[in-house]
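INFO  loader      accepted 1 record
INFO  loader      residues=461
INFO  predictor   begin
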Amino acid sequence: MTTREKGDRRIFRPGKQPASSERSRKMRLSPFPPFSLRKHALSIFRAALAAADPAAAVARHLARLDLARFRHIYVVGAGKAGASMAQAAERALGRRITAGLINIKYGHGVKLRRIELNECGHPVPDACGISGSERIARIAESAGRDDLLLCLISGGASALLPLPALGITLEHKQAVTRLLLACGADIHEINTVRKHLSRIKGGQLARLGAPATVESLLLSDVIGDDLDVIGSGPTAPDASTFADAAAILDRRGIWKRVPPAVRRRLEAGIRRDIPETPKPADPFFRRTRNTVIGSNRLALDAAARRARELGFRTLVLSSEIQGETRDVAGMHAAIAREIACARRPLKPPACIVTGGETTVTLKGKGLGGRNQEFVLAAAIHIAGLPDTVIFSAGTDGTDGPTDAAGAIADGATLRRNPEAARYLAANDSYHYFQPLGDLVITGPTNTNVMDVHLILVGAPQ
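INFO  predictor   done
INFO  writer      dumping tokens
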């Protein structure tokens, strides 16, 4: 990744060689960890991004399908990687595509000829998302028994595929989404609630597409790669129930704060006054196949290979990291200290690779995201450690409502700004790292397989 200056922020662009600069030379001579250690972290992250390329994965899968047996091919879907997945589908299918529409995040569009890209709101759904979802539902309903409904689903699809159930409005869904995000609910909990307020999630897109053959290609952004959780499982049997959704709202302390219409719907579902989401025994699933074509595990494996190439002793600790961001960051910082002081579980130069998706319980009014907050919390714990770098970034290139993918810090970060605890208390990690030039900014990556966390201790010779 290229490092260059733009104002007071360091911008990292994929695909170019690092540029030399006066600041780069100064950093090599500074008391901070060697600049090469930061460059190594970026190189390792870039390898993870390359492994998560959804276009290549879509192309490989479609090459194995017998497409000649279908009369029409319809392409639908949603997600942050929707544009690159759609590009690959167009290259593979060409004129065979009868119609297609993918809901994507604002600013993630590309030029296509046969598949329309509909830009809409994320993480809070908007009216553009609803209009696009309605059209996707109509395309699915138009597919016949001799047709193929190809569904391209990636991270962010839950918010980008909003089609409220009867009695539920966009405003209701927006309010519920904001409450779930603010209370620290994890993606499994958020999607359980979403599925039971929707006409398209939780297997209902597959039901709309019946009796066509439904082929769903999934880029996983959830812990464990559960089919019914990725994108809220629009083409997968739903293991959750109305009772589960209500229990989540109650457990998170927001049951009485959600709109009354939401409570009424969930209560009606619990009483069985309205039907449950589709379950595995539903017959249309016999003509439905869901395939995970990309995941955090694959990205971490690629990151580890790159770290070993660079000379690090490397350990992939887990691809299922979750929990409160600050607590998880503290655990990672403790590992860094153990490596630096006791030379275990690895001797320096060491690289620990983890992935997953943590949650932030908002208490302040600052700006940031879970990856930036992760690095800020870890920076406090590793203060003073020599030759130590902590890195965390989202593979989608966006971290919370910011233009950054994440951040990078070292044992000397607090020397440059000792007010880290104050910024952390305000959930204002973005404004802590911005003047330091330590935001990681990639722009949209057109993929999304959760987050990558790196601990580097000691620079290879």
